[in-house]
Amino acid sequence: MKQINYPTYQQKSGWNKLLPTRSATKPLVKDIIVDMTVIGAGYTGISAVNRWSELAPNDKTIIIDSDEIGEGNPGRNSGFLLEIALADDADSREIERMEKTNYLIGKTIKKIKNSIQSTHIDCDMKRTGTYRAAAGSYGIKSLEKYTAFLRKARLPYEKLDRLELKKRLGTEFYKKGIYSPHCYLVQPAALIRALAGKLSNTVQLYENTPAINLYRKKNHWLIETPFANIISTKIILANNVFSKSLGVGKSQLVAIYTYAGITKALDYSEIKTLGSEKNWGLLPTHRLGSTLRYMSDGKFLIRSFYDYENETDNAIIEKKLKKNLIKRFPQLMNIEFESVWSGATGFTWNGSPVWGEVKPNLYISSGCNGGGVVKGTLFGELIANLANGEKVTEVKQLFGEASWMPPEPFRKFGFHIISKIENYRAHNEI
Fold this sequence. Notes:
It contains eleven helices and 18 strands. The protein has helices at 14-17, 43-55, 95-117, 137-152, 162-169, 188-196, 268-271, 314-328, 372-387, 394-399, 410-425, and strands at residues 32-39, 61-64, 80-82, 130-134, 158-161, 176-180, 183-185, 203-206, 213-217, 220-224, 229-237, 254-263, 280-284, 291-294, 300-308, 337-347, 354-359, 362-366.
């Protein structure tokens, strides 16, 4: 299997294409000595480096990224900022723990909102709530489990039947659903641009500067990049699943490629066939299902299907995405995509993060399992606290610790077996 060192996607992020052209910072071209290096300028990395600049304002601090801001994974997600637990995480039997995690997540979203309010970038951040819907028996059971959690946690929600879903969203595909107000929708590429624009003036950002290798040298670390080396006292790895190429998280992390597309704007006749809601997001009840967004500009986003460790041929992506979208909205048979793309998500076996100090002065925060905007921001702040010598208990106590996975080829073999089982269970949801 080909080693993935850093993202090299076939297509640019569709979200980024919707934004004005941005000038990237220059890559690192000269050797440098610093106190702290953060690798990865996503939600985790930016949160970590901002917190570090508060804790150690006199340190020489840098953050590097293999790509341009907005072209990495943070600018490739679906743009959901959930204020409460994902359906897969929610458990009514652990209500005290869930309430604590939801409290931290809520605080983090407030910080994100505060961070972007002073920027001039419109992230189209709106509290629209979110729909969850099921088309088959397995999905309905999952929906019932999530509803039980919401009820026990005393969180508001609406139960919806097929008729109500059609009235609101314009689809008869789903049999049952729920609506929860606890979600913001955002333009993710605009958001990560806004956050990157708020970096402390004590922090230097180098884009197009991938970390190729790490070496421990006496009391410091040596980071190799294509054009220069970094000597750093401390390092925070915030490059998600790509930390594996640097020797960290190999037994815990796996790269899952998911695929998304944004359609061209619907015409008036197509819009009339849809429901009353004009800006909404829908999450599937099964991880193999399709995520949907209908945006106020009349465009659809769909994220659907996945691959293990390697990106699918680009010619296949659009065909599958269109099939899954039309399955839900047959009235949009003639719809066309203006862009399609992929993104690599860092998954762990048990859904818990890879987080903490792994070697002297080498820290990692990875494996958000698809919830990286909010969780990544929270974990980034906390990993900076840990690197500064603070005792941080929240992450492992509340979110757990990533479990061990078998090495290749057993891991890949196990993945494909589980995929077949899950595909059978979720065939109505895909």
